[in-house]
Amino acid sequence: MTLMQVIFLANALVTIFAALMMVTSRKLIHAALWLVLCLFGVAAVFGMLEASFITIVQIIVYIGAIAILILFAVMLTQNAVDDSYKGNRRWLMTGLVALLALGGTLLALFTWPKVASLSTALTTAQLDIGLIGQALVDPQGYVIPFEVSSLLLIAALIGAIYVGMERKGEEK
Amino acid sequence: MSFVADPVTFIIDWLQRVLGGWGLSSGWVQFILFALGAILLTVGPMLLTVGLIWVERKLGGRFQDRLGPNRVGPWGVFQTIADMLKIFTKEYITPIGADKVLYNLAPILAVGAVLGVWAVIPLSSTIFGTNINVGVLYIMAVGAIGELGVILAGLGSNNKYALLGGFRAVAQLISYEVPMVLALLVPVMLSGSMGLNDIAGAQKVAYVFLVPAAALVFFIAAIAENGRAPFDLMEADSEIVAGFNIEYSGLKFGMFYVADFLHAFTSALVFSTIFLGGWQGPGAEQYPILGFIYLMIKTVIVYVFLLGVRFTLPRFRIDQMMAVNWKLLTPLAMAAILVTAIVDKLTPGGFGLVRIVALLVSNVGLLLITNWLVGAYVRAHRARRQVVSGPRTVVVAPPKPVSEAQEVNA
After folding, report:
1. At residue A152, does pLDDT exceed 90?
2. In chain B, which residues have their Cβ closer than 8 Å to the Cβ of A67?
3. Set of chain B residues whose Cβ sits within 8 Å of the Cβ of A75
4. How far is CA B327 from the centre of its chain?
5. How far apart are the C-alpha atoms of B118 and B262, rounded to whole Å?
6. DSSP B144-197
7. Residue B31 needs a FRET pair 20 to 30 A away by CA distance; which of A158, B194, B246, B374 works?
8. B221 contacts B73 by C-beta, under 8 angstroms
9. Whole-prediction pTM value?
10. Which ipTM score applies to this complex?
11. Chain segment B272-305, per-residue pLDDT in tens
């Protein structure tokens, strides 16, 4: 077993443990923090695959933005710090849905014909971030998904401003 | 490669030969060298902080017409060591009801996030922790972990002032990330790379002379990310006592203290790497040690500017802090990106005089327009502000005739 495999196994154990703790911890705030650790583990997996850009983006987006947003939302909820929460009563149904989703994803992944050819390491030329940028605005590439998602985000932003705006002259 | 010109590469080569001579495999040699480098890059800045704290207190004293530390040693240079010894002996107090894990994790994250930045800074053309191709994004990502530390400290302390500090920290730090990232896009565009080594190496002319608008936005956003005056709302001592670190004592408080002082110096280091050319200077290519000296000189200059801002400006109100970010810095950064992209594409590449002058003129024009707009905005809002009581002329009552006064008395 090489050093890399040892590190990968240790990281995988930590990530899975963090994921388990996230869904089982009684305090909401601890669940949010276990989520941070879990996402960090995923970032480390990307890092071990030498995909530096995805690693950093994972940390910025999921830890820097989303995790802090979740923490902030949790801080503002009533039972953020009390541990009287007894868990979800419909855990069986939830678990079933989660299992189905996971099974579907795995099925889709393993029936994907390219999955066998993905195991080669990326070359330095493929790690060029400029290629990602070009692919995002290339008509042959991903320009339509990219533009559609930016349109969605704009719509969400405008909606948030509309909801959050104080209208002048309106009774509160 | 001689020892004097490039000591670090010399030592690395020597260590590689020695360890290889002991019969270690090349993988283990590399592992040991990386570990040594990591230890040096974390211990070095931590020790540097001892000096930084003295410099900051002494200069701060001078800025504010005080003496600063002047009792322990000549000019008080050993004051920090005395403070350190004191802080080591202090008791750790964990408040009742505090979340122990969060409470103890927060100081570690705060220091770790600052030290993490040092891993990607090219200290000279040959001395750097690692050269990843997304160095600029890495700095932002590591900063996000520092924010997490502040939030955890505010949340875990079970103290309302700490929680208020945490709330303010989230609002401020996340907001100021936006103009910071936008301002960082400009040097990325000019150099065509996100790696800090490439950005520093590409600056035959320092970017601050090409894009002063982006440099200014980054400088202000860096002060705000640092959480110091005039952006020290999260530990505003006159409002919420000490903010997020109110409950910490002993070395745990010391960790926040170190993180604060080191963060200021690290911000200056990042600024001089990205906008002042990093290690670039005459002879830095041949003698990498000179590059390190140039970088430190530039960093100290920026650092003194940072201190000047810290010790002379009063604190922003929270709405002013938000207005500066969303109404001034973010639009200015976006405009700077647009202007730089257009001017850069219209002029020939390289560091020709035409390109430099065009970029400089367009950026200075942008700053002047911004200044004029801000002035107009301030004048318009000042005119509309309601005045509780306008200025009145002083009225002095005329002296009463003597007879009248006597009547009243009678």
Report:
1. yes
2. 148
3. 155, 163, 166-167
4. 21
5. 11
6. HHHHHHHHHHHHHT--HHHHHHHHHHHHHHHHHHHHHHHHHHHHHHHHT---HH
7. B194
8. no
9. 0.81
10. 0.73
11. 888 888 787 777 777 777 888 888 888 899 999 8
